[in-house]
Each structure stands twice: as C-alpha cells, then as structure tokens.
Amino acid sequence: MRVPKIELVARAAPGLLATVLALGAADALATLGQPVVTTSPTSASSSVRTAARRLAVTPGAPSEPFVVYLDQLDSGTEVRQYAGPDGVVFAVSWHGPVLPDLNLLLGTYLPVFKREIERLRAAGRRGSPLSVTRDGLVVESNGRMRNFFGYAYARDLMPSGVTVEDVRP
Q: What is the rounded CA–CA span in Å between residue 136 and residue 147?
C-alpha cells in the first residue's frame, strides 16, 4: 500500500513552467504503456486503492515533453512514473529500501521481462545488477538490502527529445 501523494513534478521546455493545481487528490495507478488512470476513492476497487494519491495537474502544453508522478510507497521506496503529453506512461524509475512490485509497474511488458529473466537464469546469471533489453523494453535494476534503484522504459513510447538520462533515478 502507498501513502498519500507527496509531489508532482513537471518538466517543461526551457523557460516554461508547468501549471500545477491542487484540485484535490485522487487515487491513481500508472503502469508502463498505459494511460495514467484516476478514479474516485469511493468507487475504486481494492487493487486501485493501493495506489498512491496524487495532485491533479492541468493538461500539459504541447511544449512539455513529460510529467513525472512521484509516489512514496509505505516501504519508503520512491517510484517515479513518466507520462508523455498523451498521458501514457513511457517510463518508471525507483529508489529506496525495498524493490517495488514490478508486476504492477511493468504491466503488459511483464511477460517480456519475465522471459528475459528466465533466459538469464538459465545461463547462470543471478542477482544484481540486472539489465534487460528486449522487444522495445529496457529495464536496469540494481541494489542490495535497503538500497534498490532502477528504471524501465518502452523505447517506442518515449516522447521526442526525451533521453534515458531523463528517466534514471
């Protein structure tokens, strides 16, 4: 379970600032390759209720390459979800004492990730660091007890002008 939303960060073109409005908090669940979803807390299913609360943001200007949603899990791990102007999450990153649930973060990209992990294990590779690049998915994960960090992104979903440096934790 996650704790209330603590921050919303918007990256704008040079000289521009994104407008952030505190229109109220809503439960949200963002998964790689999926649109950012918000639901009313009263109508949310139990799986969506585990998502962090976020501030509402005005629609981004066309010059804004992405918006970052920062969630802090109960474990203390921070998860950043990067959404393009179309609202689709193209990357996620994490840093904290506990590895986040990659099943939730990777969404439909999870089967690709699992196949590659199985292939690496069959080849005798175990532990950190982990690097997966397959079928448009890139995942880099590293860490040890109480210090995990990494990122994942879908190459075909990255907005123009955004680089991997923009999504590293």
A: 27
Query: One-letter amino acid identity for 108?
Result: T
- The CA distance from 167 to 129, in Å, is 18
Domain borders along the chain are 7-166
Residues in the chain: 169
pLDDT score recorded for residue 8? 45
Alpha-carbon distance of 7 to 68, in angstroms, equals 9
Distance CA 164, CA 50 (A): 28
**What's the gap between Cα 162 and its chain centre?**
15
Digit-coded pLDDT (tens) for 36-49: 865 433 333 333 32
Q: Contact 90/166 with Cβ under 8 angstroms?
A: no
Q: What is the pLDDT of residues 109-155, one digit of tens each?
A: 999 999 999 999 899 888 778 889 999 999 999 988 889 999 999 99
Burial class (CB in 10 A: 0-12, 13-18, 19+), 31: buried
Predicted TM-score (pTM) of the model is 0.70
Alpha helices in the chain (DSSP H): 46-49, 102-106, 110-122
